[in-house]
Amino acid sequence: MQHVDLKEVRSGAYVGQKITVCGWVRTSRDSKNVAFAELNDGSELNHTQVVFDKSKFKDDLAPVLALGAALKVVGTVVNGQREGTYEIQAESVDLLGGSDSTYPLQKKRHTMEFLRTIPHLRVRTNTFNAVFRVRSELSYALHEFFHKNGYYYVHSPIITGSDCEGAGEVFKVTTVGYDPTVKSEEEYNKKDFFGRSAGLTVSGQLEGEVMATALGKIYTFGPTFRAENSNTPRHAAEFWQVEPEVAFADIDDIIGIATDMIKYITSYVLKHCAAELKFFEERFEPGLVAKLQNVADSDFARIDYKDAIEVLKKSGKTFVYPVEWGLDLQTEHERYLTDEYFKKPVFVVNYPRKIKSFYMKQNPDGVTVAATDLLVPGVGEIIGCSEREADYDKLLKEINDRGMKLSDYANYLDLRKFGSVPHSGFGLGLERMLMYVTGMSNIRDVIEFSRTKDDLK
Ligand code: 4AD
Ligand code: MG
Predict the structure, then answer these.
(1) Can you give the pLDDT at residue 109?
(2) What does the CA dihedral 62, 63, 69, 70 come to, rounded to 10 degrees?
(3) pLDDT higher than 90, residue 68
(4) pTM above 0.85, yes or no
């Protein structure tokens, strides 16, 4: 259908010309001699006003003015009342798809909770239109960053036989239903599609390491799945991760790469999503743009895990969860470190081995690993990062000590047998980054079709 995107109309190039535009009616107004419809076609956050001189239209305009209706309008572009705005003086209009008073997005401000009940329509609101435009731009910026820096984009499988994080949060993939005659789990798994147990991947890292130990610098970018039983505003059962993996890189190298990446994508969004960020600043997070500008311009903090524990102990705060060397940092601890103590992104480095994953490089002290989480104000952890254990014997012992099934990790161990190299990588949760960039406080509102515990629409 030949037409001009409304974003192009805003460029001003079409003033005085007769063009065709399409879009959905966001708001409308009807008066005696003229009617107005604010049209949006998804090409930008702003709406474009279409003016109907009623003397030129014989038919009743009510169906054309219904909220949610889809229109095709032929008309002349004129300057709007405010500088830099343009209107369309309609000459003819086609009602492509009608709407009526049962359309749920009538003229009032809806709660986020209500909007979550209509995932198929909420993207037609300004808020979600903006969120998903930023999501698209952020994803593109990630690809651009890695491509410009010589990384290869590789595709790790969705169905896997191993649990990368070893946290037992794998969704089972099966075609075999309940069978009372089966005597053991082993027998049950044998009857299944792959002749063994299978699950949805929690991370593309293990395959990423395979690729990096041949291609050098790679990244994966795709959906990952976790059957986490935590009903929080930051956990989803299905979320997207970008996971670079770099050969010949140690923990300091990878921290540098993570920093550059976050700065790059933040700058990109500041430049390409200015209207959306202004909108989020007004509606959701005062100071958002200055916060992001600061991320793009200044260094991140870095603190050793053991020092972070001391900072928390000396904070004078009463935390719900205990603060002790050897215990994981809870959200409240992360929030204190980022929101109150550092007031900017911080890498917490050298966590105790026992609370982290099996694959992390063991530090010479024997009790910590070369691992770091990047914590940011308002959200908490957005990146999980580490140098990988490159020593065959140490890795083998760790797998055995943790009671993991050796045969599932045989190929992974081979990487340490043949041409093992120091290598490092990390995973950035795309939705967590989006929460940080948009100021949205619930992960359910930055993923269009969110999947969380007890909730799949
Ligand atoms: O810290 P995680 O578990 O690290 C890994 O999966 C590593 N294998 C990554 C790597 O080194 N290649 O997860 C990485 C990030 C977290 O920092 C967080 O941003 C996000 O993934 N994440 C989640 N996001 C939403 N919902 C969940 N349930 C998430 N779990 C992790
Ligand atoms: Mg983590």
Answers:
(1) 83
(2) -110
(3) yes
(4) yes
